[in-house]
Amino acid sequence: MAIGERIKRIRNFRKLTQKDLGLAIGFDENTADVRVAQYETGTRTPKEKYINAIAAVLQISPSALSVPDIDNYIGVLQTLFALEDIYGLKINSIDGELCLALDKSIGTSYLTMFDMFSAWQTQSEKLKNGEISQEDYDNWRYNYPKIEAEHTRAALDARWQDQQK
Questions:
Q1: How many CB atoms are closer than 10 A to CB 13?
Q2: Does residue 84 have a pLDDT over 90?
Q3: DSSP string of 119-160?
Q4: Contacts of 27 by beta carbon, 8 Å cutoff, 6+ apart
Q5: Domain ranges, ordered by start, for the chain
Q6: CA dihedral sign of residues 84, 151, 49, 37
Q7: 134-142 and 108-128 helices cross at what angle (nearest 10)?
Q8: What pTM was estimated for this model as a whole?
Q9: Whose CA is closest to 40, among 68, 23, 76, 65?
Q10: Which end of the chain is flanked by fewer CB atoms within 10 Å, N or C?
Q11: For domain 3-64, which architecture applies?
């Protein structure tokens, strides 16, 4: 999904108009909606300062907007190849089903990616089991890793308070 599509999706998720978003990031009243529409349609690509401003208004991480171009299968596969090269993501087969797995032999990167994937899997399971809403799940994804750190901090604070009793 291209950056413009992500902006539109998250803007709609936050229930903002194009004009609201444009004004909030500093465009003047006459051009605010036009500029955001240009970003969303891909006519223009926002500069980094606007990506950061849009992310701040949408209350997400800028990296949630700046994703690789995965609008076609070749782009997806090239992204997976890059993940293999950089992070040791491997393709395997389990019981005849293709799956992606982390390469344990790469040490620290494996542990970091394992922790991240585990956090993702936990949230995905909560959604599947009805423990959280789609909105909560999307909020977690769009604010990762900040929201994960907040969850961890809250859990540690709760554990500390229990120990104080």
A1: 15
A2: no
A3: HHHHHHHHHHTTSS-HHHHHHHHHTTTHHHHHHHHHHHHHHH
A4: 35, 36
A5: 3-64, 69-105, 107-165
A6: positive
A7: 160
A8: 0.63
A9: 65
A10: C
A11: Orthogonal Bundle (1.10)
List the structure tokens of 115.
């922790």
Residue 6, amino acid: R
Residues in the chain: 165
Strand partners, 94: 97
Select from 102, 80, 82 the least CA-distant residue to 92.
102
Which residues pair with residue 101 across a beta bridge? Answer: 90
Phi-psi sector, 91: left (phi>0), alpha (psi -120 to 50), beta: beta
Mean pLDDT of 118-132: 96
Token readout for 97 is: 């089903």
